[in-house]
Amino acid sequence: MDKESRSLLSFACEEQLCSQGSNNITNEQNELLKDIVDFTWWSDRIMTLAKHGGILAMLNIGTGLKFQEHDHLYSMLVLDRIQQFQGRIFVLDSKVPSKPHRESGNVYNLEQITGDRKDQLDVSQLHWSLISVSKRSVPEMYNILISNCKYQAALDFANHHGLDGEEVLKSQWLHSGHGKDGINMFLSNIKDRNFVLSECVDKVGPTEDAVKALLSYGLQVTDQFRFSESEADEGSQIWHFRMARLQLLQFRDRLETYMGINMGRFSVQEYCKFRIIPVGEAAITLAESGKIGALNLLFKRHPYSLSPSLLKILAAIPETVPLQTYGQLLPGRSPPPRIALREEDWVECEEMVNFINRLPENHEIGTQIQTEPIVKRCLGYLWPSSSELSEWYKNRARDIDSFSGQLDNCINLIDLACHKGIYELQKFHEDILYLHQLIYSDENDVDVCSSMSLISWEQLSDYEKFRMMLKGVKEENVVKRLHDKAIPFMRKRFHNMTYFTQDQDTDSFLVKWLKEIALENKLDTCLMVFEEGCRELHMNDFFKDEIEAVDCALQCIYLCTVTDRWSIMAALLSKLPQKQDVGISIECFEKRLKLADGHIEAGRLLALYQVPKPMDFFLEAHSDEKGVKQILRLILSKFVRRQPSRSDNDWANMWRDVQCLREKAFPFLDLEYMLVEFCRGLLKAGKFSLARNYLKGTSSVSLASEKAENLVIQAAREYFFSASSLSCSEIWKAKECLNLFPSSRNVQTEIDIIDALTIKLPYLGVTLLPMQFRQIKEPIEIIKMAITSQAGAYLHVDELIEVAKLLGLNSSEDISTVQEAIAREAAVAGDLQLAFDLCLVLAKKGHGHVWDLCAAIARGPALENIDIGSRKHLLGFALSHCDEESIGELLHAWKDLDMQGQCETLSILTGTSPSSVSDQGSSITSPPAHGIEETINLKDYSGLAGGASCGDREVCFSNIKNTLNMVTKNCHVDGGTDLESFLWENGKLLSFATFQLPWLLELSKKADNGKKFSSLIPGKHYVSIRTQAVVTILSWLAKNDFAPRDDVIASLAKSIIEPPVTEEEDIIGCSFLLNLVGAFNGVEIIEEQLRIRGNYQEICSIMNVGMTYSLLHNSGVECKGPAQRRELLRRKFKEKHKPPSSDEMTKIDEVQSTFWREWKFKLEEKKRVAEQSRELEKIIPGVETGRFSVW
């Protein structure tokens, strides 16, 4: 009864399949086909029928047999077949609530529930479930019975169908307790040996006895597969059984080991795991857990299997485990001599080993067949080498120290290893002992030593370990620490080394350490060590010998950088051995000791004079001579600045100390240099009287007078330039210093400078402090300051020159520079007269820098004492020194001056002036001349004409034009400018053309002016007034670009060659004749001279000139420019009166016209007549030779 749904569910669920005979098939079919509510196909030939009463039956259509007998299945009258699979259907059914209901009318219950109507079902009263009905074969049905543990039914079914009944035994064995009973009842009756062996190998019984029984039965089964000589080719199945036997042996050995490890306690799970795990891994697991006893048992029972991983297993033991518990497991140099194993089984033979070796390397049961006898035969006993053992012990000790900090265990471990024969660990053992001693010693630095690990200690070099032993020592305990720890350590480390041989240069640990602490300036500690080490040098092993001790002491002294421990350094040297061993020469060290002693004394002196230097400075002092000299100067400088000032006795002591420094430390210094610096210090200190004595020299060194003077001068300059005013004491000190050498010229120069700055310059209004004077590079700047300091200062010419000389400007050029500065300042101030006088003086000296001032004064306004000659002199000087840009302008000015000078000269010679000459009816008067720069322009014309009317102006211009036409070819002006306008725009040109030009023309025409004067013009002999007037006219024409007329040039030539005349004058006249446009005009002048000359020499001279004139004109035809004509003229004049050669005459004949040929014949004839007349005069003196002339 279902209480929740109030429904009654009553179904039976059991099915049996059976077969019937074919009797009464038709009746049965008819009966079976009645009351069917549903059907479906079971297979192609069998149909499943569901009747109204809940009966499920199967009918073979082909045979008509029914496969269902008496059992009822209460099901829903709906069947459904799985279409894809034959022999399967689904049935909705429900279990019958209780057995009584099944027995008392099940069909009725179903009918009561369903009622009369088939389509009306009270589902709430039913509890349905879905079941599957499947087709099964005979083997399948047999296996189902076995799997359901229906062993009797299965045996009956097997017997009925002829099947093997062993499957039932196997199932019974598999479901048994795997004990002895199961073996006897089931396993022993199974004939399948593969199954039996697999069960013996794979199955683990619930108890130790069960496991042993199963293993023993397996060994019993495989015992029949022993090796036989008759079996030539054994099958793989037999080898399989033999391998299974090895597994059984391995599992039996593991069982015994497991039980021993677990003290007789058995666990199926743990044993299953233990028997298949590699024994090495099991050993590591035991080692990690600290089960030393179990590990020991494992080593005893499986020595060969564990030997390859022996060290790895032992390393897995926790570092905190006491060594005493596993010390017996630690390996020695060689393996144990005897190893106890069980008796070998017949399968553990060489043939089996060979078979195993042929197996694949990674065989699935490779580790499960490695019994100890097999491993012994395959691998033997693998024992680590000595190096591997040594390295393992070291690593083990390091791990113990790193993870537990138990250094005692490390010592015990290595000590045990040494006892086991691993002697390579002796040094390592000593290192650990030293570390232990270092850490647990009360004298060491606790913080540093306690943190020192074994690994860190090993990484230290032997010397670093030695240094750690001495870390933190002081003077009072260093000797004890050395004796107790450091020296024994050093002795052991160097016992087997070559350090103590004579040719070894490596420093010992003690020497290195002493040099390090010396570098830290711990000289007190060094002193204690050397005092102890040198006391019994060959007994205490501090030093190898005297040489090492001395060398180390010297190095320590020179490594020390302090400058206040000189007494300790000296005491340290005193502790060194004073005698040498027999056979050992330390002569070089004796020299070094002496040198070091001197350096100590020198260092003491330097510290005394407040210039401290360490000892190593003296070793390299010779390479830095400049630095040593600087130190010496610093000593003297500090000594000078000390207050109160030092007495003469102090200075004498100072000189002795300086000499001592040179002797002890600085022998490379020149004694003279040291005396110079000492005297310099005396002079700086103001000890002039004492300095006078030392400047004369000492008993050991003398000083040259030049150096003494320079020293005095330098000191005086320092005093002088440090003066803050012109009246302070430094000025007096400078003079006092210079008075040490009053007769020296150089010293006097310095005195002059001081006088100039303190006396002369203030008088001139210039106050310069010495430092200001020092910053002025050129003394001339000071002179310029004096010149411009106050109004009228330039007038003190002599005083300024004197000051310049005091300042060192003594040369002629320097004086000229001073005069130039004065002249310029005078010109600026408007004192042109003084500037003019100085410029004349400078021009005579050739001081070219003043050319611009000279040019300005020469072209300036008129002065009282400045004449045209002086102006020309200044302009000429300016022209010879000016720059290129100024040449043209200055040259033009010089020409104006020269023209004005020529006019003044003529005016003086003739007593006339341009103003005395006036044209007919002209009212123009000559204006007064005021200076060279004065010009007349259009605005001044009214003054020039004297207020003349326009008519007079036209007359004036007409006269000017007529006058110009008399001297020039044409008066045309380039550019189309009108001549009248051009003249009015150029006042100077108009003035000269109006006044000077007519006057000069008149002078050139007067016959009285033809007389030649010997001193008319300086540098020119026998020049007439007429000649000078014509030259002036030509100069003016050339200056203003006017071409002269031929008659003007001819007039000049005539005035020059008029007798009496010299050959030079004839040549000059001929030169002027060459400028004539008409060459025949020159011929007329020459012929005229031939007529009027009576002197034979003059006649020959003029004839030679004529010949040259003819030749030059003939050659001039080929000259294409002025440059060629000038060169031809220069060459002919150079030849002077040399007659033409025959070639030249031939050339003249070929080129020359008839005129020149005939004129040449005339000249030759005239010359012949002149020669005849000369001969006639010799014969008849006073004869009138003119009657014989044919000219």
UniProtKB/TrEMBL annotation:
UniProt domain Sec39: residue ranges: 283-538, 595-813
Pfam families: Sec39 (PF08314)
Cell location: Endoplasmic reticulum
Alphabetical list of InterPro entries matching this protein: Sec39_domain
Lineage: superkingdom: Eukaryota
A molecular function (GO) term: SNARE binding
Alphabetic keyword roster: Endoplasmic reticulum, Protein transport, Transport
One GO biological process term: retrograde vesicle-mediated transport, Golgi to endoplasmic reticulum
Main location, first listed in the record: endoplasmic reticulum
Annotated Gene Ontology cellular component terms: Dsl1/NZR complex
PANTHER family: NBAS SUBUNIT OF NRZ TETHERING COMPLEX (PTHR15922:SF2), NEUROBLASTOMA-AMPLIFIED SEQUENCE (PTHR15922)
Protein's recorded name: Sec39 domain-containing protein
